[in-house]
Each structure stands twice: as C-alpha cells, then as structure tokens.
Amino acid sequence: MISIQAQPDTISRIKELLGNLRYLNLLPEGSQFAIDRIKAVNPLSIIPMVSVINRKKLQCIDQKINESLLKVIQFPAQKDILENSELKRSQVPIIHFHFNGKYKQEISKKLNLLHMIFLNLLRINIITDKRFIELITDNTFGFVLGEMIDNIDEHSNAQNIYLFAQYDAEGDYCEVCLSDDGVGLLGSLKDAGREVLDSNDAMRKILGSGLSAKTEHGDIKRGTGIRYTRLAITNKEINGEFLIMSGDSVFLHTAADGEIFINFKDYFWQGTIVMIKLYKPVSKFNLYRYVR
Q1: Rounded Cα distance, 38 and 2, in Å
Q2: What pLDDT, on the 0 to 100 scale, is given for residue 21?
Q3: Of 186, 34, 174, 160, which Cα lies nearest the Cα of 95?
Q4: Three-class SS of the chain
C-alpha cells in the first residue's frame, strides 16, 4: 500500500518513496493500487508515484484517505498545462506534459512555453507570500526552473514530464519536483559516447568533474547547469536542497549537511527526477554571486 507519513527530513522521504515505488512496480499493468495513509502531500513524495501510476495505467481502489487534498492536486490524473487556462488558485494541480511532436524545434518551443507558464504560476498562484518572491527574486526561480527544463530538452529524449510545486507558509520554503521518463543520466552519457560504468559513475562524473553529453565543435563540453544550480540553491543564504535521482542512484546536496550519494539495491528509475527546495532568505538574494 501507498503510505506518506509527512517525514520531516529528505532522507526519510527518499526511503519512504522507494518503498512506495517498489510496491507500485510489483503491480501488474492495469491493476489496482491501495492507499494506506497520506498525512500530507509534497512534490518529491508524490510526483514519481504519479509517473508510475499513469505509465502502468493503475487504478486507485479507494481514494477517501485525504480525499479533499488529493482532489485538489488531481491525483493521479493531471492536466496538460499548455491546454488548460483555469489554473488560478493557490493549489495548482500536478502537471503532465506529453511530447507528441517528433521534431526537436517543436519540443523546444513547447518546453520554453512550459517554463514561462509555470514560472508565472509560481509567482501568482503557488507562492502566497509575495515577500518570498521579492527576496528570492524572479531571476533565481527563472534560472533554476530553466535549468531543470533545459536538461530534458538537451539530454533526456523523454515522452512525459510531471511537474508539481508547493509553497509551505509555515516552513517558509518552496519545493519543486520534476520527473521525466527519458534515458536518464547514464543513457544520456552513453548515447554521447562518454565512458561511464553505471548510474552511480555517471552521476559522480556529472556532479564532480562536470562531464556532459553536450558537444561543441566535436569536442566534449563540460556541463555547468547542475553545478550552478546547486551553488545557487545550497548556499547559506537560501539554505536549500538539491536532489537528483536517476537509475539506481540518488544525489542529495543540502546547505546543512553537504553532499550525499545513495545507491539502491533493488530499484531502477528509468529517467530522471529533480527536486529543489528553497527557503526564504533574510535579505534579497543575488543570484549572480553564484552563477557566471
């Protein structure tokens, strides 16, 4: 059964998420799933599950547990943000974006539109404290969200994106989670001819030495997007968190605890999950101290 216990720390939430994903993974396609308990909904705990539920066409047996909250975010159904004009409330539903175009230019155009619309939703509907936006700045949210979406455009070959954000007024933070069903970090580097052994090796080389699948004039071009995103989020001004999960590996970087790598023994995520968590700074944040 699915259970979300509103765990206070991200490591505990990762462990809980893996348990839920393993449960869903064992279910036959088109079958039913059960919910044991959902104390609260947060992007990292919910988005990866929604991706699996919809890919396998699973049906919920009973959705009465925390029904009002699940109904608001439209779990597990989603609206295509590019085809919906009624997203004008404080709780924005889970967004499902499907790539039905075959041409790179068409996909890039739609991803740019997704970036613009979702950034506006953050400003107007999701983050209710306008002072939060003033201190974090539009530039920061625009840069971080843009890097998350650009990586999908450049590397993933995904068919589906799931995106969800939530502002916690009590905790004074905003959390955004995005997942895709593409080739993942390992597949992206292998497709580009890079020498990588497995998901963990791929993640460490991307995060450590800046190895990238991008090319410039036939040569390897070092990636800077993830590096700058981490610097912008996990500094002592924002005190945030950056998480990336791909294959059988997770990397978590927090302002409080630094860098943590986790390997799974019996689960493999086909694609990539990225989560960012930003706390309200005490003074106006200058993104350009960390991004060059």
Answers
A1: 8
A2: 95
A3: 160
A4: CEEECCCCCHHHHHHHHHHHHHHHHHCCCCCEECEEEECCCCHHHHHHHHHHHHHCCCEECCCCCCHHHHHHCCCCCCECHHHCCCCCCCCCCCEEEECCCCCHHHHHHHHHHHHHHHHHHHHHHHCCCHHHHHHHCHHHHHHHHHHHHHHHHHHHCCCEEEEEEEEECCCCEEEEEEEECCCHHHHHHHHCCCCCCCHHHHHHHHHHCCCCCCEECCEECCCCHHHHHHHHHCCCCCCCEEEEEEECEEEEEECCCEEEEEECCCCCEEEEEEEEEEECCCCCCCHHHCCC
Query: Facing residues of 272 across strands?
Result: 180, 246
Q: Which residues of the chain have pLDDT under 50?
A: 85, 88, 90, 216-223
* pLDDT score for 218: 42
Q: What's residue 43's pLDDT?
A: 93
Token pair, residue 29, equals: 């396609």
> So what's the pLDDT on residue 32?
92
Residue ranges per domain, the chain? 76-289
Neighbours of 201 (CB within 10 A): 16
* Number of residues that this document lists for the chain: 292
| Closest among 160, 173, 164, 87 to 129, alpha carbons compared | 173
**CA 232 remoteness from chain centre:** 16
* pTM for the whole structure: 0.89
Fold of the domain spanning 76-289? Heat Shock Protein 90 (3.30.565)
The pLDDT of residue 291:
81
What are the φ/ψ torsions at residue 40 (nearest 5 degrees)?
-160, 160
pLDDT for residue 200: 86
